[in-house]
Design brief:
Length: about 140
């Protein structure tokens, strides 16, 4: 009885730890240039594909009515809060890396190749946006 309980407890602990090595969750986005928190991003998985939306803006100058005026696709004119900024990212086989999709910078309306890598046991997320060999990496912090 005690042995079975211990096995179940260890299995649940291992499952919880593995779930943290996923980008799925709520993240605080910190600007890599200024070091200031910009927004909270909700990442979800839908049919094996990772997508993310801006859930809350933290910039004091941001207005709730701000829209993505610079966007060039179906997101043009949509409110920044709720805007889908990551699309089409999938987990690479055998790795704790999600790649192959795009991330949108709503301020510029530009899309970049997206690569998400959970680090520090899933407490942080390296978000790399790039075009060819040029790019930037931000480190986001898990909120939930």
């Amino acid at each position: 009885m005690i042995r079975n309980t211990l096995v179940i407890a260890l299995s649940l602990t291992a499952t919880a730890a593995m779930a943290q090595m996923s980008p799925v969750g709520l993240w605080r986005q910190v600007d890599d240039k200024t070091g200031l928190a910009k927004s909270e991003i909700r990442i979800v998985e839908e049919n094996g594909v990772v997508v993310a939306r801006i859930e809350k803006r933290l910039d004091p100058a941001a207005k709730p009515e701000d829209k993505c005026d610079e966007c060039k696709d179906d997101r043009k004119g949509k409110p920044i809060v709720g805007l889908e900024i990551i699309r089409g990212v999938k987990k690479l086989e055998g790795k704790d890396v999600w790649d192959g999709g795009k991330i949108l910078d709503p301020a510029e309306g530009k899309e970049y190749n997206a690569r998400l890598t959970p680090i520090e046991g899933g407490k942080k997320l390296e978000m790399r946006g790039s075009i060819a060999f040029f790019g930037r990496t931000q480190t986001w912090t898990r909120i939930q």
